[in-house]
Amino acid sequence: MEEAIVYVIEKALCEEIRSSNHWSIMIDETNSITDEKHLAVVSRHISHNVPVTRYLGMINLDELTAEAIAFDLKSFIIAKGLKVENLLHFGSDGAATLIGTKTGSYRRMQNLKMIQETLEDPQLAILNIVNTRWLSMSNSVKNLHQILDSVIDALRYDAEFDKKNHLASNLLDELNCDFIISTKYLADLMFILTKLINVFQREYVSFADIKIHLDMVYDAITAQFIGFDGSTPSYGTHLRKYMQDFNISPEKLPPFIKSFSEAIVDSIKSRFPQSNLYYSFRIFDPKLLPIKESELGNYGDEDIKKLSDYYGIDKVDEEGNVMEKIVDSDDVKQEWEVAKYYIKQIRSQNAAGGWEYIFNTYPDFVNEFPNIAKLVKISLIIPLSDAQVERIFSQHKLTKTRLRNRMNIETLNKHLMILLNGPDDFRRFDWNKAYDYWAMKTRRSN
């Protein structure tokens, strides 16, 4: 009967994606408790004028080459009766982490171990990546910073009154001024980074959110730890207070503070490269609309041209298949001159909620401005956040535990499909369809 329930849920899901016309996918990889390589596939599409994220399934990866992963992914999509040509966006946390490159999971763990050995930290068990990452790192730094004085006092007490306690003495030697400065610095730095991390924990992230928070991170890190145009940094809150209390001048600070801060900024910029095409979608975000009425007349003209030039021409893939244009480039420009004034009504809302309001309140908008409506919906399904994918892997780890390590991928996928895509209340589930499928399968088996 479980198979019948999954059949009904999956059929409704695929119909929902097909009715969206265009869709996106996000993928992420994980190793199960039995070291199997799995690829989770998540769809992002429009349902009832709202961008939604749905679990599509789990792929078992036998070969870990880019070509094999691409082939498995395409076969997976086709097997579900979905059109690859309608797939417009692709988001990934880095499937290349599976194949053991220098940025792979194995290498990252080796780096962590090396750092722990260098600092003579205890070799703690590596937690599920879903549960660690930046937020947990931030919490660890914050917790250590809050109790650092107590830790040092406790070690001093143990070292003084128990001469045989060499561990306390050795640890106390490591907790020198540079260590304290590093802890203060990281506490200030992680406070900034956490603000950006929290944005990407949301299920929906807008272009306005990204731009505002990225600019905040760049400026805050530069002002506090690098300095603008040769000016002296402010050195955060905790680090600055420590410098004042112990009369430490900026020249006496470890040089890694500036170099590490610069590396953090460069790393974030490399993960969020400027794409002229994607950046042009920002014009559909109500929060970025000009405040002055006089600026609205020419607002978005250059961006709408970039979008119409890209989506308004036919394209040919490597196999010679022709992908028909999505919009009429001339009509897009004309529609935009009027459609932009609808955005004024949703200025206070985020893009997803605002456009849902327009599509529901003015159902004729899609007919009056068909090309703009298509571009808006395309912008809403861009996978700017993989938070939902991470939540799926959290459920994956909770489902396939050490006690259930013999669960195969088919059974695991069924459980996740029901758990993540099933109705909140199964009293509303279409049991008749499930029964019909179950009865048909039963007759066939006979």
From TrEMBL:
InterPro entries: HATC_C_dom, RNaseH-like_sf. Residues 367-417 form the HAT C-terminal dimerisation domain. PANTHER family: DUF4371 DOMAIN-CONTAINING PROTEIN (PTHR46880:SF5), RAS-ASSOCIATING DOMAIN-CONTAINING PROTEIN (PTHR46880). This is Ribonuclease H-like domain-containing protein. GO terms for molecular function: protein dimerization activity. The lineage of its organism: Eukaryota, Fungi, Fungi incertae sedis, Mucoromycota, Glomeromycotina. Pfam families: Dimer_Tnp_hAT.
